[in-house]
Every structure is written in structure tokens, then in C-alpha cells.
Sequence to fold (737 residues):
Amino acid sequence: MTSTHFTHDIDGDGIALVTWNSPGRSMNVIDMAVIAELFGIVEELATDGAVKGVVITSGKDTFCAGADLTMLETLSRIFAELAASQGEEAANARLFEESRKLSLLYRRIETCGKPWVAAVNGTAVGGGFELTLACHYRIAADNNRTRLGLPEIKIGLFPGAGGTQRIARMLPPADALQFLLKGDQLQLSRAKAMKLVDAVVPAGDLIKAAKDWIKAGGTAKAPWDVDSFRLPGGPVYSKAGMMVFPPANAIYRRETYDNYPAARAIMQVVYEGLQLPMDQALRVESRWFAKILRSPEAAAMIRSLFVSMQELNKGARRPAGVPAKPLKKIGLLGAGFMGGGIAYVSALAGLDVVLIDRDPETAENGKAHSQKLMTDQVNRGRATTADRDSVLARIKPSADFVALKDCDLVVEAVFEDRKVKEEVISRTQNVIGDQAIFGSNTSTLPITSLAAAFKDCARFIGIHFFSPVERMMLVEIIMGKETGDAALAVALDYVRTIRKTPIVVNDSRGFYTSRVVGTYIREGHLMLTEGVPAAMIENVGRMAGMPVGPLALNDEVAVDLAWKILKATETDLGAEMVDAKQKALLEEMVEKRGRYGRKNGKGFYDYPQNGPKRLWSGLADLQPKKLDPDAIDVAELERRLLAIQALESARCIEEQVVTDVREADVGSILGFGFAPFSGGTISYIDGMGTKAFVDLCTRLAKSCGDRFKPSKLLTDMAKKGDTFYRRFPPQMRKAVA
Fold:
């Protein structure tokens, strides 16, 4: 047979070596062509009497990056077309058969009668890791960068090629559920300890070790296909089983509020599958997979958290015609918590970093932040001492601005005060070269006005990080009115280098992320003034899909900062631009009570030294009236918290603060955790339908105030039955390779 993705040869011992090396791709991925070709190879080798066993490996640095999700989008399109032409029953049958082809392929490998060994020479995730699980033995090349896992839950799906059933038969049910529901990617040491990998050997010995296992009499039967097999945690309806599944269901509901159909499906298929023989269990998994594949949550999450994120990460917004210039050295102004974090991720990515602060001791303290983070990684087995030494060697603390002279990019992360920022801008521009780019890490001050203090506004840009820098994956790049393409290109190249996701927005008060998340916090404030119990506000925020309630979030970003922003808004734009009730609440909290948030141990929550945080008991005293909790429409509160953010996002698009709908969605999820199951703020509107969203906002405007009044753009789109992704299709620029 003609092979495009695989080559195979048989040695003198009758052992076939199948090498996967898809042309034109940096990593192997699974699509329909790969499935068909591998099926043919499996049948050929299974029926060849000369073949004693098979080793499958990769011809690339990684084993497999999982399924090509455009394949799944194609399946969804086939379903929609068949449902329209032949009815939903026929569409369901076709989708089920198409979506289970990979599962059937892996089961054929598992039961073909020949031992298969997965020789894993790099990262294997998703369907690639499921392939290794279907092999009878898994051996990996020793590589600290290798990761193994099933991350499908993070894009609204679950492993649909046997992963749920094999993992549930290899691990105790509690461990299996945790692994499947978290979607974490494991290092080899952890995978081996969990017995998901049988052996780890030096890279040069990988193929030999795999073949040796077959020659030593390796079995061609999976453990669960042997009559004597017993489940690791005992039967589902055993005492041990009943100690797992009921509490696991409770934990699932506590953590997800039933917003994620794929998570519920994992619970279901593991619970049902463990009561069935393997082939029937796989059929149950396939039926649930086909169902989840059709869910709006999966469609939205795949688009935003996979397709759009990949496009943005690969440079979809990078200006055409600006040649790439590798960054070698960057400068950081300000060695505080934020500056220290930026220095860390930059050095971790291989960049040389000059870390400047007012004196050498303070600058050294900023470097110590990187030392602590790297030491934590070493202690967890995720890095070596050599890795730590290498990162720290790249960071040069200093109090002398002259050290910035040969930097390609300088980022200021000093105190959020205009005078302080203008001072460091002035001192920097006197020493850096005429080609160096200057970036300001600000969350509130307009970039255009800050750029006025710099000698060349075209080289000035906003680079807004989120805290903590090492954990938050988003960077918001802000274009001032005179920012040039060269500055944008360098900023995007830098963000790509440090392996974070960029969004590009135009200058405005609060930019995009701070502006939108501010509406969430404000809505929580207003609910409190209306008499809604604080605990209900916080719980409803999480029920709506946000990571924390609005009051807790305000504590994290600082209550006094919210007060300063409100006062600045009132000064610049007038009293009518702030809500009087919110102003009174914040004034009481900050000016009269001295409650600034987590940073001083008291905000909407109290933060005792010993014990978890708890809502401040004095909040009830700040409420002019108190509503009966049983009389409050909880669903209405949820709608308010999500709709106000989506509405502000739509306004940002209308005002051209955001010019790409992908960035609105991705930015809302990565920046402030907007209900990931919705696909982001704009997908929330499109998923509901613009007319339905406008109707909701109109109703909320009547009951809650004009802040919910739909904009002109939304009203126009509702009349035309339009969607944001149809009206503002993403610019499909060629991504940078």
C-alpha cells in the first residue's frame, strides 16, 4: 500500500518498526487520512505470519500532538448537513460511526494477536496518548520535556478513542477520574510512577529496548482481556466503589456547577464502562463522545480555546511586511512582584534580562523572585539545578540605566503613577538605541498619553501582563494612536517567545480586559447595595462560570484601586459616568473603613493569619436594605453577571477598541476567566442569538438600569439576525511559521 504518513519495515527477527512522520507538519496529528493509513498497516501486519510483533514510534521530536480538530469540525458539519437533508436520526447514526473510527482502530491494535509496543520519543497527548494506551507495552525515551496526557476536557471534549476505559482499568477510579477531569499533562517520572508508562530508557536505546521486550515473549493481550483481570479499585458496586463515585459526583457539581457536559460525560462513561466488558464499554464511550461533539459548549470551546488561540499564538495579528528580528536582550524597569515575574518568564524563555530598580538591593530582590520560582520547580522534579542556574545567569540586576543601552525591548513595570512612569521613560530614552522598542505594563493609564513622554511615539506600545505573570497566559498589547507596525511586531514576537497568548487592542480607558472585568466587579457591588446577601453574590458568580465571585476578585485586584479608578473616571468624564451607589460603597470601604483588599488583610473578605479567608461580617451593615434570599431569582443574578460583561465587550467592538472577535473571546477567558464553557464574551452572545441577547439586555435595563441598554450595533444586528463571527469574520492572515 502507498504510505504518506507512515513507513514500516520488518527486521530479521520478524519485528516490524512503524515510523509515523507526517510530511509538512512540525508534529504528528491525527486526521482521517492518518486513521485510514494506519488501519491498512495494522491489517497488513496482523495477517502477515512472518511478523512477530510491532513497534510504533515517531520520526519527529514529539510522538503525537493529538487529533486535528478540524477533523472534528468536519464531523459536526456532516451532522448538520445530514440532519437537514435526512433527519436527525440518520445524522446521529453517521456521526456515531465516523467519530468512533479511531476507537475501533485502537481496539484492533489491542486485539490483533501481535504484541504492539509504543516507543514514545517525545510528547504524546490526546489521541496520540490513547494510541500508546492501546499498545501492550509503553516505553519512553528519557526526556525531561516529554509530556503525556489527555487534555481534551480543556476544550469541552473528553477522550473518545478508548482513553476513559483504559485509564479507568489501569488506575484506581479516584485517580482515573482526577486524571481525566483535570486534563493535566504528566512528566515521565510521574507517568511511570502511575504505571501509565512501563519503562524509561536512554533515547539511543529506545527502539532496541522495545524490540527486546517483544523478543523476550511480550504478551499480545491487554490486562483487561485476560479472564483473571480485576479492576484496580474493585467493582463499581463494591464498598470501595461506593466510597468513590457518590463523593466524586458531589465534587464534580461543586467544581463545575454542571456547566461542562464533557465533565459529566466522563463521570458517566467511567461509571457505566467499568460495569461492562471492554468492547461494550468502548461503545458506550463512543456514543457519549458523539453526543458531546454536538454540544454548543464543545463547539465554542474548540473554536476559542484551540483554533483561535493557535491562530493568535502563531502570529495572526502580526503586521505583514515587518521582518522577524530575533530578540536577544530585554530590559525590565521595576523589580517588584510584577517586574520580577516578567523577568522570570523572559529568562525562562532564553532571553537575557537587565532588571533595573532604584538601588542594587531592590533589583537583587527582584531576581530572588526567579530563584524562588525555579527552586520550587526543582523541588517538584520539574527542573534541574542546572536549569535554575541557567535561568538566574540570564538576569542581571542593576540600578544603572546605562545597562539598558543594547536592549532590543524595554518594558516598564513600575508603580502605577504617571509621574513615576514618565521619570523612568525619560531616563530610559537617553540610553537606549534608536531601534529599541519601549513597552509600558500599565492596566489603567492611556498609552497615547504616556507615549508623549517618549522621543518616538511610533516605538512606544502597551504590554499589559496579568498577575501572577508566571501563571497567567494572556498578554494584552495596546496600540497608542501613533504606535507603529514595527513596535507591534516586536511586542508580538516577544509574547510568542515567552510562550503566552497575545491580544491586540486599541487605546482606551481600561483598554479591553480591565474595562470589561470592571463591569463584573461593579455588578457585584450593586447587587450588594440592593440587599443581595454577599455569600449569594459570590456563589452565583461561580455558578455562572466565573473562577471567583466579584467581591473576591475586587479584593485580589485591590478595593482601593477600584476606588482610585472610579474617582479618576469621575474627574475626567463627569459624575454622570460613575454609579452613585457604587461610589458610596467604595468610599465607605476605603475611606471610612480602611479596607483595601487582600493586600492589607481586609476587604470584602477578612484574611486571618491562620485559616481560610471569610466574608467580612460587617458587609451586612453596609446594606441599606436586605432582601429575602428565598425570594431572589438566582438565574437572573447569573444572567446579570455574564450579560454585563458580554455587553461591554460588544461596545468595545463597536468602538473599535477590539478589532478581532477572536481576541475578545480568548482575552475574556484567559484574562479574567469569563465562563470558558461559553467560548468567551462574544461567543456568549452568538450562542444565545443576538436577538435573544438584545431582548435580555432590554429587560435587564428596565429592571436594573440603563447600564444594560443594548448598543446601536447590537440592536442593528438583532434586526438582521446577524452574529459577530459572521459580521466581523477574523482576518485570516498567514500565520508566522
About this structure: The longest strand covers residues 15-20.
